[in-house]
Amino acid sequence: MTAEDDAFAALGVLSDPVRRKLYRHVAASPDDVGRDAAAEAVGVSRSLAAFHLDKLVAAGLLAVSFRRLSERAGPGAGRPAKMYRRADGEHAVSLPPRSYGTAGRLLAEVVEQAGLDRELQAAARAAGAADPQASGSDLVEVLRTRGYLPFWDGETLRLANCPFHALADEFRALICGMNLALVEGMAPEGWSAAVDPCPGGCCVSLRSKNNSH
Asked: How distant is the alpha carbon of residue 154 from its chain centre?
């Protein structure tokens, strides 16, 4: 089976609406999610949630860990609970096949070698400010639609996913600087953005000056 076949199979699993809801819930959660919590979140039975969650695991979309949910230990403590989290891999399908990733890497390499970081950041900030959805909209929802998977960590808005993950792995300083400028451009007045990496997620976090959420 080719990589394209794998991607088709993985994304085909999401054709079921319950699985889509479960995947979105688990992917957006900053912590591992158990079967009971997932079932309650999407309004299905625990057994149905378990069935669909395991299908998502088999497709490589979710990963699994086991841990006890209570502090009890030893005999009578019960079996560790099965917990789910978003898998690290990426899946994308283009028909016919395209190679935007290759173009992105080549462009990033040229920008980095030419020392055009500031020019890239200026363009990113302008693009964020010109985003039609960002103007007058709820920032959390805008970030969610852009794939950042935002969540509140106290008074800090963290981003559980980096939409530029593959490029950031290879050109971290360049892409993180671009990403910070893009988010700054999208953020309305009263918000501040900074490089403050979320483990396993995005390098940028935000804070609201009025701290109301």
From this structure: 19
pLDDT tens readout for residues 119-160: 999 999 999 999 877 665 688 999 998 989 999 999 999 999
SS3 72: coil
Which residues are within 8 A (CB) of 184 and not within 5 positions of it... i.e. 6 or more apart? 125, 128, 193
CATH topology of domain 3-86: Arc Repressor Mutant, subunit A (1.10.10)
DSSP for 110-130 reads HHHHHT-HHHHHHHHHHHHHH
pLDDT-based confidence at residue 2 (cuts at 50, 70, 90): low
pTM, full prediction: 0.72
**Sheet architecture: strand order including 191-195:** 150-153, 156-159, 204-208, 191-195
Domain ranges of the chain: 3-86, 102-208
Q: What is the pLDDT of residue 70?
A: 64
Distance of CA 17 to the CA centre of its chain: 20
Enumerate the H helices of 32-171 as residue ranges. Answer: 35-42, 46-58, 100-114, 117-130, 139-145, 165-170
Find, among 138, 141, 143, the residue nearest to 182 by Cα: 143
pLDDT value for 4: 67
Q: Is the dihedral of CA 135, 183, 151, 83 positive or negative?
A: positive
Distance of alpha carbon 166 from alpha carbon 103, whole angstroms: 12
Report the C-alpha gap between 40 and 56 in whole angstroms. Answer: 18
DSSP state of 201: S
